[in-house]
Amino acid sequence: MSKGIFITGTDTGVGKTVIAGALAIALKDRGYSVGVMKPVETGCKKSGKRLIPSDAIFLKKASRSRDSLDLINPYRFKTPLAPAVASELEGVRIDISRILKAYHTLNKKHDIVIVEGAGGILVPVYKDYLFIDLIRDLTIPVVVVARPGLGTINHTLLTIRCAQEYGIPVIGFILNYSKDLKPDPSENTNPLVIKRLSNVPLIGIFPFIRNLKNNPERLKVFDTKNFLNGILPFCS
Ligand SMILES: Nc1ncnc2c1ncn2[C@@H]1O[C@H](COP(=O)(O)OP(=O)(O)OP(=O)(O)O)[C@@H](O)[C@H]1O
Ligand SMILES: [Mg+2]
């Protein structure tokens, strides 16, 4: 049976798309068929009458998936707010069963499907239904992407414990340098503290990649071989 992982984050902008893309590339390069999904994308720019879901496009490029953008990204909105708010403002009903169906279609076609959330796990997808509800309904484990530096113990533990309380398995967490900062001194101690307090391992520390822009090929400059040890058991 093919499997999936959900990439969540401690916040918006922490690097979920970048990490999901890097994992997709690494798995693809090892011969896996990789499906990707961004169930709902908000803040999409307009090109003529069409909305451009840039995360979904980045993930499609990274995974070299031939799946249609509508399967990868069933819902997209112009308003740069949480999906539940953007959809309400734009008068669109998000049908969760459509998202689950799209996931299961991708799941049948690929060895693994990498799903990216929006913001963090308690962000509402539609009305009172949160991303954590979606993860539970997809029955897949999560990877938590977090910032390095001060504050990350709290944010990462909040995310991990919340997932664990919902009965969602947490594969591990990744500290990602989304900005060109000097290595943070907390890098050496935070992973151990988080691991001790949550029993969840550090998958790895992902560096800042220069000139990344919208080109996932640039992610290949960093070898994620070590990251895959934790992820591979979840691939068929
Ligand atoms: N390791 C990295 N190296 C270089 N740039 C990065 C890195 N990680 C993230 N970025 C940049 O930081 C910004 C935010 O990253 P990203 O879009 O992956 O965050 P996100 O968590 O997916 O955000 P959202 O909640 O909007 O989906 C992007 O411009 C991205 O290119
Ligand atoms: Mg993203």
Blueprint of the fold:
Layout: E1 3-9, H1 16-29, E2 34-37, E3 40-41, E4 45-47, E5 50-52, H2 54-63, H3 69-72, E6 75-76, H4 83-89, H5 96-109, E7 112-116, E8 124-126, E9 129-130, H6 131-138, E10 142-146, H7 152-165, E11 170-176, H8 190-198, E12 202-206, H9 225-231
Parallel strand pairs: 1-7, 1-10, 2-7, 3-6, 10-11, 11-12
Antiparallel strand pairs: 4-5, 8-9
The structure holds adenosine-5'-triphosphate (ATP) and magnesium ion.
Report the total helices: 9
Task: Note the main sheet.
Answer: 6 strands, parallel
Overall geometry: globular
Q: Average pLDDT value?
A: 94
The N- to C-terminal Cα distance equals: 6 Å
Q: Based on the structure given, which CATH architecture is correct?
A: 3-Layer(aba) Sandwich
Low-confidence residue ranges? none
What count of structural domains?
A: 1
Q: Approximately what portion of the residues adopt beta-strand conformation?
A: 15-25%
Radius of gyration: 17 Å
Characterization of the model:
The protein has 236 residues and is an alpha/beta fold. It has nine helices and twelve strands. The protein is globular. The protein starts with a strand and ends in a 5-residue tail after the last helix. The mean pLDDT is 94. The chain binds adenosine-5'-triphosphate and magnesium ion.
List the defining traits of the structure above.
alpha/beta; 12 strands; two-stranded parallel ribbon; Rossmann fold; six-stranded parallel sheet; 9 helices; 236 residues; binds adenosine-5'-triphosphate; binds magnesium ion
